[in-house]
Each structure stands twice: as C-alpha cells, then as structure tokens.
Design brief:
- The complex is a heterodimer of chains A (613) and B (173).
- Chain A is of the alpha+beta class.
- Chain A has helices at residues 35-44, 67-76, 145-155, 199-202, 268-272, 280-285, 292-307, 313-343, 347-368, 388-413, 416-422, 430-436, 441-444, 452-455, 476-499, 518-521, 525-536, 577-582, 585-589, 595-604, 608-612, and strands spanning 48-54, 57-62, 84-92, 105-113, 118-125, 133-135, 158-160, 228-232, 244-250, 253-260, 377-378, 381-382, 544-552, 555-563, 571-575.
- Helix content of chain A is 37%, strand content 15%.
- In chain A, the strands form 5 sheets. Chain A has a 5-stranded mixed beta sheet. Chain A has a 3-stranded antiparallel beta sheet with strand order 8-9-10. A 3-stranded antiparallel beta sheet of chain A has the order 13-14-15.
- In chain A, α15 (476-499) packs parallel to α20.
- Chain A is globular and about 70 Å long.
- Chain B has 173 residues and is mostly helical.
- Chain B has helices at 3-6, 16-25, 37-46, 81-90, 101-106, 136-152, and strands spanning 69-73, 96-100, 127-129.
- The longest helix of chain B has 17 residues, at 136-152.
- In chain B, 46% of the residues are buried.
- The chains are: A alpha+beta (613), B mainly alpha (173).
- Chains A and B meet through α6, α9 and α21 of A and α3 and α4 of B.
Chain lengths: 613, 173
C-alpha cells in the first residue's frame, strides 16, 4: 500500500516576487583543446560533438552510441589511463531554451585519472526524448552500478545493459522520477496565519494516520530455499543510521549482502533547484551531518568556481582550519562508534573520543555559534571572522590532542580483540578499489596514493606540508591505520595554518555576490541597494556547469552545479563519498561471518544522510 | 500529622499513583534509534559531558519491547514512516514520544516530496523540541518537560477499560 500521509500534498509554488528567474540559457559549449581532448577527437572524429575546456575543466560531448567505446578507450589507452569513474548523473533540460531536435536529457560522467592527475567530464545526450536511454558503463567500470541506479531512480534515464536496474532510493511503488523537471517539488503549504480556532490545533498530536508496512521483497538473485535470509535494519544499533541490509547466509557465512537505501532520502537535489545559491549552504550541513564544515566547503567552492570569484587569503586559511578540525571531529566519531560496534567493551573509548570531539565543537561554536549544522561558509568567504579567543583555544587543543590520539591507539592495539576482529576482514585489492570507484581512506587503505588535497589542491592546500598515509593490505585494519594517521596529519596542517594565518578580510569584496558590512548600510545608498538585491533576489551565476570535488573525511565529496544564468541552481548533484563507498559492502562481506558485516560497515564509515541525500 | 508521626524513622507514605509515576519518570528508557543530524546530538547527550544518566535515561534499548520513550531524532522520509509506525506499535504502554528537532516536529527545511511534515502525522507526540538540531541541553529540558507530564499521569486512565485515545494528555492540562 502506498503511503500518503499528507492530505494536502500538492505542488509547492514559489513566491514570484522573490525569485527572478533571469533569462534561462544553455551552458555554452567547451572551447579550446587539451592533450586529452585532442587524443579523443583524433580517435572518435565526428562522434565527438564538442570537446575542450569549460569553466577550467576538460569536457567532451560524445554521441551516445559511442559512449561505451569512449569509456573503454579512456580506461585502456596508455596515454589516457582514466582508472576510475567517479560519478554518473543526468540533467533534464526541459526548462532550458534547447534548440529543436536536441536531446532533452544529458548524461554527465566524471572520469578521473589518478596516475596522471587528470579529470575529464563526458556529456552524452540521451536518445529517446521523454523516455531517455543511455548505454550502461558497468561493463567497463563496475562502480557505475549504483550511480546509474540512482540516476535511473531519480531522473528516469534507462541504462541499457545494466545488470540490476532497480530503484535504489525511492520506495518501490513511487509513481514518478522526482528529479524530472515536470514533477513538482512537493511538500505542504505552510500556514502563516494560524489561530486557536484552526482545526489543525484540535487534532494536534492526534493526527494519527495508518502507515502500513510494505512487505519486504527478497532481492533478485537471492535463494531463500537453500539459504537463510535475514534482514538487518533499518532499525539496527550497528548500521549507523537507517540502513537496511538484506543478508543471505549459508550457516553463519555470508553469501551476499544487498543494501536497501533511501530510508533517509530527503530530496536535497530537488530542493536545491528552488532555493537561491546562498541559501543552499545551510542544506549541505544536514547532508553528512558529521562534517558540516566539509560539506559547506565543497559547495561554496563549486559556486565560486562558476562565478570566477576570488576568495581572500585569510578566508582560505580559516576554511582549511575548519575543514581539518571537522576531519578530526568526524574521525573521532568514526573511531568511537566503530570500536563500540566491534569490541563491545569500547564504551570508554566512546566517552573519551566524544570528549575530545566536544572540544572541537566548542571551537566551532566560538566561530559561528553552532555545534553541528554550522553554516559557517559563505560564497566568497566565511560568515564571521575568528573571535580573539579562538587562537588560544585552538593552541590548547593542538597541545593536548597528539597525546590523546596515541592513547586511543594504545588502548586498541594493546588488547588482542581489536586486531583479531579487523585484520584480514573486508579485503579490497587495488584493482577492485579502482573498479568500484572507491575514494578516501577506502582507496588509500588499498594502496592507491591519492588525496585531492595534495593532488588537485584547492583553497591553498598546496602550501601545507603534510603526508598522505597509504596502506597496502586493503583490510579493515589498514583503513583504521590510514584514518588514525590522517588525524595526526590534520593536526600538522592545523599547526601550519594557525602559524601562518594572514590578516585581512574574511569575505570577498564583490558587492554583486557578498553583502556589504553592516556599518556601510547606514552611510551608503549604494550599499543598501546591493544589500536589498542580494537578500531578495540573490546573485546570478553565469550559465555553465562545473564539478568541484574536495577530500572530505570519508572520501571524494563532489558537487556538480548546472547554472542557467538565474539566481537558483538549475540542477545540483551531490556525489556523496559514503554512497559510492557503501557499494563495496557486498564485495567486502562475502565469505566472511555475519558478525563481520558490522566491522565492514564501521570501516566504510558511512553517514546515511549523505548516502541517501 | 497522624499516621506518619507514629511510623518508625525512614518510612514515608505516599499514594501508589505517585510512586509508580516517580519510578516511570526517573527511569525512562529511550529506544536506541537515530534518524539524522539530531541523532548525533542525542548521542552527545548520552556521553560524558551532558550525561543523560543523571536523569536515569542512559539505557538506550535496541529492542522496542524494552523501551518506553521514542526520541524521533531527525527527518522522517516516506520510506521510513511505516518503520517508525511499526516500532512505535511494538513498544509497550505506557510509552512516550519526543519529536526532537524541527524536522521531526514539522518537516523543517525539507518541504518536499520525500519528507513527512512532522512525525505527529503518524504517531502521537508528547514533547516537541525546537532546534536544528537542538542542543543536548534542549533535549535534557525536553526530558524535564516529559517528567512533568509523567508525574501527572493517572493510573486510572491507563486501565484497559478506558478508550486508548484518552491516553494522550495535552501538555497544558
């Protein structure tokens, strides 16, 4: 039975006076050429519709019939060597002034070469008009499986040749593909004038509607006659949130694990299309709620890149400080919950590690007033300058923290349980990690030496001296070691950032994007006008698209932003590291015991808010 | 005062109703169940700094059969709603619900196709906590409020003969 709990479910209308759409425009075609685009053009000739640079990134438009060939060429050609497919998404161009006869849907693929430090965006117009079809890339990059399923679920693109094209986030019975442009955002009208006579008050707390459970289905390919099939979650203490795993068991050995996602799907991408650029910063906090600062970071960088906005030096260093503090906080939380799940007696470590995390949250609170959902970053800088006491408190933190990390490591490695439960569990080889499109500690634990902070630096990361820890074993223990070492390296970066914190403005001085300081509003009419325009209409972003990735504590966090020249994103896609890393759970768990699933979940370090978005 | 003066030292008198309510209010066991951002603050409430154990609620139970308080800590999606409803139904009476944060209370910033605009559409809520997410102190205050309500509960109202809808006491009563 489909669940309809909101009787007033109807299209949500945006107030027209606040949102000036501007003149919608299609993103311009790429210009110029690079070594890679030239090579692709030589090989594919007329099937390359356009190639070159767009917003500083390599972009190739390819005819969909040759997409698989191009992918194979990118992966195997010795001069290209694009080892991994980072992201798959789509753009519905229904509301753009697309010329007659052009495809409505575009598939957008992000390829990455770790060995050559290159990034390539491939755009393929989908055939089939309103019922779009694209060839599946799972035969070349197995990691395309989940991103393609997500794109199918939310965007309605049919990936031909996909081995398992089911819905992944929305419930099975959902009637539409919510990211298509003709589908309204949904939601409820907010009653702004409510009196005690209103019928809603009479029923407050008693509006109890039936919510019937949908009988769970056995995923295709599982054999319930020969094997035992058990259901872990969505309410389970060790799934780190609302994740449902369907586990096929032969005795106590795992045959297959099939995750069922979407229990926390919150429609971030659809919501982004109806809020102004500056307002979406606060939504990103709530995505990976353990690392609000990092999410802010990726989003503002993407928009700044489209705007071509220069960020002041001081703001860049403040951002690095916040991102590294956030990495520490998130790793501490990962460590404490992982230990709690695995060793059973780890409650003390949870208490210790969250105590140190509270110190970091205090620093955040000092800077922006919030602990968890910070909203500290602004497009063009940060919201406030650091308060005077921040430096001393961070100094204190940097003094005590190294000792604490050593303590935690000793607490774990001196006992036999920790190593016993982690070593040899969930092994991923280097090739498998690249195949599956894993990122972050999952990738570095399998011997791939890659860190976006070092290899594709942003916000001045090239100025810091730090090491990227790499382990080759590929098991849960290797990933644990990588994360522990990352915490120490974060402390190193923090030390350098604090010592070299420059003076100057903390927000860009571009009146078209950032609001003027409060004092200026009393003196200048010009400033008032700018302030009014920014607060009502928002700023307009030139048409185009970009993919900006940063190294979050869990892996590569990417934001794909497509602008049509208006004050709101035309399309925003978030490449969550947890989502792509969770794909490995099946591979990691096969052949192990049921208890090792818990170890693997902890080792992947998922946050469901980001998996489901 | 009559009887109490004649009793030996250390003995007090009270009504059974007060005794039961006292017990319930000071050992309310929440369900170990987190949804989104608020769940992290809920965990923070449980750890050493804020220490929910001072209020007798540190024992988060993984089984709904052993829990009497459901803290809905985060946004409720359409896919999750039947699960929450079932968990609530599995809990044994008397049971209470705290809607933690604006998402659980009214949908919060997620006014869209995916999120239910308030968990009170599917289960009755006793205490609403504002905030996005509420600080641990707010959750502790919500527990305070809940205790006030628990102290007012009438044993008679929970007897099997009375209709179940009457169990829901309005906060201001």
């Amino acid at each position: 039975m489909p669940l309809d709990v909101s009787p007033k479910f109807r299209p949500y209308e945006v107030l027209p006076s606040l949102n000036v759409p501007g003149i919608p425009a299609v993103a311009p075609l790429p210009t110029g050429e690079t070594q890679d685009t030239r090579r692709i053009q030589e090989r594919f000739g007329d099937d390359v519709l356009a190639a070159g640079l767009h917003v500083g990134a390599q972009v190739v438009y390819i005819r969909p019939t040759r997409l698989v060939d191009l992918a194979r060429f990118l992966r195997t050609d010795p001069r290209l060597r694009y080892e991994t497919l980072v992201d798959v998404t789509g753009v519905d161009r229904l509301e753009l002034p697309v010329p007659e006869g052009e495809a409505r849907f575009h598939g957008v693929y992000q390829f990455r070469s770790y060995s050559r430090r290159q990034h390539l965006t491939v755009v393929a117009p989908a055939e089939g008009g309103d019922r779009p079809r694209l060839p599946s890339l799972t035969s070349v990059y197995p990691g395309a499986n989940w991103p393609e399923r997500e794109c199918h679920d939310l965007m309605g693109i049919l990936f031909e040749g996909h081995p398992d094209l089911r819905r992944i986030l929305m419930p099975e019975h959902w009637p539409n593909h919510p990211l298509q442009k003709q589908i309204p955002r949904g939601g409820e009208e907010v009653p702004f004038t409510l009196t005690w006579e209103d019928p809603e008050f009479e029923t407050l707390g008693k509006q109890i509607l039936p919510a019937e459970s949908v009988p769970p289905k056995v995923p295709p390919g599982m054999d319930s006659r020969r094997h035992l099939i058990i259901n872990m979650g969505p309410h389970h203490p060790s799934t780190h949130g609302v994740l449902r795993l369907v586990v096929e068991l032969d005795g106590e050995d795992i045959v297959r694990v099939d995750p069922d996602l979407g229990y926390l799907h919150s429609g971030f991408e659809k919501t982004a299309e109806s809020v102004r650029y500056k307002d979406f910063v606060y939504y990103t906090d709530r995505m990976d709620y353990l690392s609000g600062m990092t999410n802010n970071f990726g989003y503002v960088l993407a928009v700044e890149r489209l705007l071509g906005l220069e960020v002041p030096q001081r703001a860049q260093v403040i951002r690095v400080i916040m991102a590294e503090l956030q990495r520490l906080a998130a790793h501490l939380f990962w460590l404490s919950t992982h230990v709690l799940d695995v060793s059973g007696t780890g409650m003390s470590l949870l208490m210790y590690a969250t105590r140190d995390r509270e110190r970091i949250l205090d620093l955040f609170e000092m800077a922006c007033g919030a602990r968890l959902t910070v909203g500290y970053f602004r497009i063009g800088g940060v919201s406030h300058d650091l308060p005077p006491a921040f430096r001393d408190n961070l100094e204190l933190f940097l003094q005590v923290m190294p000792q604490k990390i050593d303590d935690y490591e000793r607490m774990l490695t001196l006992g036999p349980v920790w190593e016993e439960r982690l070593q040899g569990i969930g092994v991923i080889t280097r090739e498998e990690a690249l195949d599956m499109g894993l990122t972050g500690p999952m990738l570095r634990g399998s011997g791939v030496d890659w860190d976006l902070r070092r290899d594709m630096p942003y916000s001045g990361y090239e100025n810091y001296d730090f090491q990227v820890p790499v382990e080759t074993a590929g098991d849960c223990y290797a990933r644990y070691r990588v994360r522990m070492e990352e915490m120490r390296q974060s402390l190193r970066i923090l030390r350098q950032a604090l010592d070299n914190l420059p003076d100057g403005p903390y927000l860009a001085d571009d009146r078209k994007v950032t609001p003027p300081p409060r004092a200026e509003l009393d003196l200048s009419m010009e400033a008032l006008i700018h302030h009014f325009k920014l607060m009502t209409e928002g700023f307009h972003v030139p048409p185009g698209f970009t993919y900006q990735a940063i190294e979050s504590n869990k892996g590569e966090l990417g934001f794909f932003v497509y602008s049509d020249g208006s004050a709101r994103p035309y399309r925003l896609h978030i490449r969550g590291p947890s989502f792509n890393n969770l794909y490995a759970i099946d591979h990691m768990s096969r052949g192990h015991m049921i208890a090792d699933v818990i170890t693997n979940i902890g080792s992947i370090d998922i946050v469901l808010g980001e998996v489901d978005r | 005062m009559g009887l109490e003066e004649r009793l030996p030292e250390g003995v007090i008198t009270t009504t059974l109703e007060k005794l039961v309510n006292w017990g319930r209010a000071h050992s309310t066991w929440p369900l170990l169940f987190g949804l989104a951002c608020c769940a992290i603050e809920m965990i923070a409430t449980g750890t050493a700094r804020h220490d929910i154990a001072r209020y007798g609620s540190e024992l988060f139970r993984a089984s709904p059969r052993q829990a009497d308080l459901m803290i809905v800590s985060g946004r409720v999606s359409n896919k999750m709603a039947p699960v929450i409803k079932r968990l609530y139904d599995q809990m044994q009476a008397p049971k209470w619900v705290i809607a933690m944060g604006i998402c659980a209370s009214a949908g919060g910033p997620f006014n869209n196709y995916a999120i239910i605009q308030g968990v009170d559409k599917i289960i009755p809520v006793d205490v609403y906590v504002p905030g996005c997410p509420p600080r641990p102190e707010s959750l502790l205050y919500a527990l305070d409020k809940l205790r006030e309500k628990q102290a007012r509960a009438r044993l008679k109202a929970q007897a099997p003969s009375s209709p179940p809808a009457e169990e829901i006491l309005p906060l201001g009563a």
